[in-house]
Design a protein that fits this description.
heterodimer; A: mainly beta; 59% strand; globular; B: 114 residues; 4-stranded antiparallel beta sheet
Amino acid sequence: SQQGEEDPQALSIQEGENATMNCSYKTSINNLQWYRQNSGRGLVHLILIRSNEREKHSGRLRVTLDTSKKSSSLLITASRAADTASYFCATEETSGSRLTFGEGTQLTVNP
Amino acid sequence: DVKVTQSSRYLVKRTGEKVFLECVQDMDHENMFWYRQDPGLGLRLIYFSYDVKMKEKGDIPEGYSVSREKKERFSLILESASTNQTSMYLCASSLWGWAGQPQHFGDGTRLSIL
């Protein structure tokens, strides 16, 4: 069963704007991870946030985690056309090291 | 950088055939995973393995089996291919660890069963 649910399913913005994607989940987790997938390619790991962390940054990426609301958000600042891709959240539950992926958000950044 | 290599990018097979999808990783990772990805359904875990000769069922193991004879290689087997197994198949690997490890993915095999 799918643990994470991303919102929105699709997002279209202009270059230079910020993009925010949200993820909700249902059970207790060890960590939450965000991945990116370019069309026709495999997933690439972007960032991992542990259950005892609230915010994490990596370059133009900012991830927040609210364990009380069982939700996370991924913010991409100053977006570029090259950021066009699908973005997935994945949760690692406290019971093991397997990940459960959401259905993804398709981000389109228009030049 | 970790490299996960899947043997074929595109594969076309016929119904009833036995199909082998191969995956090799070069970073001595303990964990390896097979997913299928379908529109509207996201990634679903088929099988995973924590060590050589060990395997665990994921969420949708029916119609599939796996083999892990060497640490670096994890094979997915479709025993008798059916049209509903047409999909994108993704292999991934990760280190074993308590603190959470990212998964590294191959580029996928787009499999069509005719």
